[in-house]
Amino acid sequence: MLKGVTLLTGLLTLTMCIALPFFPRLRSWAIFSTDTAVLFEFDKEAENNAGEFTGGVEGTIEEGTVSMDAQLEIQIPSGVDPSSITIENDYLTRTVSIIFPDGMTDYFSEYGVRGSSDHIASITYYKQGTDGVLALGLDKVYELSSTFEGNGLYLDFTAPKDIYDKVIVVDAGHGGRAPGAVKGGVSEKDIDLAILLELKELLDEAQENDPGLKVYYTRTDDSNPSLQNRVNLANGVEADLFISIHNNASNSGKFSSLQGTQVLYSESYEGAPSSKEFAQICLEEVISSIGSRSLGLVEGDRIYIIRTSEVPVALIEVGFMTNREELDKLKTEEYQEETAQGIYNAILRAYDEGF
Ligand SMILES: [Zn+2]
């Protein structure tokens, strides 16, 4: 009975740990429709980064065929050296930014974009400092190929699944000003990230050996992407597997004897194999790699990224930061490495088992 109560409080804590930092965001998501979200983000970023932001100007694409067999032809402003142009593809916000150094104030009055507007949800031009930024909002996540020819920049967009056989998204919980659980001077966000970076080393090597494998990460530094952006990445690339790495805390936040590994899954995801099957694989492989106690699988639809995931998702609560013994282990590189190895083994096994 006591054990049951402890486990229950553990479960509650786990939910709070994941859900609490996210609640303030829920309201702002509701305000932005998917169509306008991209534009809002441009505005916000530009305001943060540049003092002289005067508002982005929306453009249109002149429909028509483009030479070079590309989807879009973007006119390069006269005087701009093509080699000075930067192209950024932000998978998280589904935004391609074409940055002209010393860009003009108004791009669309003199220049334009031609081609097919397929996949392009919005097109905006704004000044950011001295740079001019032409921002394309995409309807999904695409890989980009670019060619310069004459005074044109030619862009093509390809869905990851049309390039890669295996596509995975890995997420580390929290980040930035959202530390997750904090115990003994250690923030959960840092342990989550450390495990992700160990896993990334293994996956980088796997990608080198298998050109058909592609892994996307919601963060590889101390940033805090919105939950919507995290899940949009997994859905936008149509990931085979979506893995989120977290650590747990007791209900009171105080040190307790409660320890062990739990994996959350989606009850609502209807694909086969199921999210629950993937979660089970993660649980078994992580436990076998780090030797932790199994606290089993947990229904996770209360969690935004689980509920809204359209791909098989597993959220791994590796251990309890409120258990002294487990916290001491979680802090070590060795344990982080072993955890990463367990998750890596789970990925291999999931593909073996038909994911
Ligand atoms: Zn967490």
Task: Write up this protein.
By secondary structure, this protein is α/β, with parallel strands linked by helices. 35% of the residues lie in helices and 27% in strands. It folds into 2 domains: 34-158, Immunoglobulin-like, CATH 2.60.40; 161-352, Aminopeptidase, CATH 3.40.630.40. The chain has helices at residues 2-19, 23-31, 34-49, 160-163, 188-209, 227-236, 275-290, 304-307, 324-330, 333-352, and strands at 57-58, 61-63, 72-75, 86-90, 95-100, 113-115, 120-128, 131-138, 143-149, 152-158, 166-172, 182-183, 186-187, 213-217, 241-248, 261-265, 294-299, 313-320. A hairpin with a 4-residue loop joins strand 4 and strand 5 (95-100). The longest helix is centred in the middle third of the chain and has 22 residues, at 188-209. The radius of gyration is 22 Å and the shape is elongated. Zinc ion binds next to helix 1.
Secondary structure elements and pairings:
Elements (H helix, E strand, L loop, with lengths): L1 H18 L3 H9 L2 H16 L7 E2 L2 E3 L8 E4 L10 E5 L4 E6 L12 E3 L4 E9 L2 E8 L4 E7 L2 E7 L1 H4 L2 E7 L9 E2 L2 E2 H22 L3 E5 L9 H10 L4 E8 L12 E5 L9 H16 L3 E6 L4 H4 L5 E8 L3 H7 L2 H20 L3
Parallel strand pairs: 2-6, 11-14, 11-15, 15-18, 16-17
Antiparallel strand pairs: 1-7, 3-6, 3-10, 4-5, 5-8, 7-8, 9-10, 12-13, 16-18
The structure holds zinc ion.
